[in-house]
Amino acid sequence: MTEAGLLAVTESFTDRTIVVVGDVITDEYLIGKPRRISREAPVIILKFAERDVRLGGAANAAHNVAALGARVVPVGVIGRDGAGEALLALFQRAGITTHGLVVEAGRMTPMKTRIMAGGYPATRQQVVRLDREPSTELMPATEDALMERLSTLAARADAILVSDYGYGTVAPRVFEHVQSIARSRGAIVTVDSRYELPRFSGVTAATPNEAELGDLTGHPVDDERAVEKAGRQLLERLHANMLLVTRGSQGLALLERDGGASFIPIFGTDEIADVTGAGDTVISAFTLALASGGTPLQAATLANIAGGLVVMKRGTATVSRAELRAALTRAS
């Protein structure tokens, strides 16, 4: 595996179309400077400095695909609320189509609000996070609308990326439709599911983290041999072709159903700035590289580099194709 080969894979990014279906989330950051201890309670008073809103969850995965140079089509559900309006505006600002977004009246758009304290960006720390979540399952009409969007917008997709954060967008009926479209297209299907990975069987690849792998198999995952053993069990359970396990400071592990296991050390330094949304970046780069003709190991290597770059940025962030190519050149 050479630098030239990896660069050649990135050259094909701009020719690919990736559909990202899943839970789109609004990531809100409220930033304040510490002032003093409150007289009302033993808490710090922050003087409000600024508000920053970013694309989160499946929306962040879509944003990463776009930043890497591909055409991306996000498919998801928003509410008729301020958080939904913010998502639409952010997608439009990034030049990403919103035709795949379904509006469900009365449903809350998921929003994660992080309270950040610090005088300078480099020193800001997350104090608390407040999550606003939809409390009900999708209406049948909303599922129908999602499937209609998928039928139209995924007809020419090279890959479908499923990003499931547990908010119900990728309902069983919706996922069955994803699989049907992928079979007819010969498209790749990758999945990142926070809580229900076992129900997403028959995919090309899944991307659990190490802790999720241990929980799903009931096996310890404290060394490479244990990770491979647990990974093989999960591969069989999922009937998947590949498993890409994110291992934090240990890098990535790639397990192929009809091949071996590859352990890829972390790219860059393990003194990271922020892991928020790093999994979205990893699956986005991995999916796009596979769709661009890369081998599983090439795709995992590019995903590892992208993940190493994004954790050096604060807040929910993306990695561009130019940054990825520059990192490849520096590493050679």
Describe the protein in words:
With 332 residues, this protein is an alpha/beta fold. It has one domain: 3-Layer(aba) Sandwich (UDP-N-acetylmuramoyl-L-alanine:D-glutamate ligase), CATH 3.40.1190. Helices cover 37% and strands 27% of the residues. The chain is built from ten helices and 13 strands. It has a nine-stranded mixed sheet, with helices on both faces. A four-stranded mixed sheet has the order 3-2-6-7. Strand 2 and strand 3 form a beta hairpin. The longest helix has 15 residues.
Which tags fit this structure?
332 residues, alpha/beta, UDP-N-acetylmuramoyl-L-alanine:D-glutamate ligase, 10 helices, 37% helix
The residue-averaged pLDDT reads 94
Architecture, according to CATH?
3-Layer(aba) Sandwich
C-alpha geometry: globular
Largest sheet: 9 strands, mixed
Distance between the termini: 11 Å
CATH superfamily: Ribokinase
Numbering strands along the chain, what is their spatial order in the largest sheet?
Answer: 5-4-1-8-9-10-11-12-13
CATH class: Alpha Beta
Instruction: Tell how many strands the DSSP assignment holds.
Output: 13
CATH topology: UDP-N-acetylmuramoyl-L-alanine:D-glutamate ligase
Q: Helical content, roughly?
A: 25-40%
User: Rg from C-alpha positions?
Assistant: 20 Å
Unreliable parts: none
Series of H and E elements: HEEEHEHEEEHEHEEHHEEEHHH
Summed up, the helix count is 10
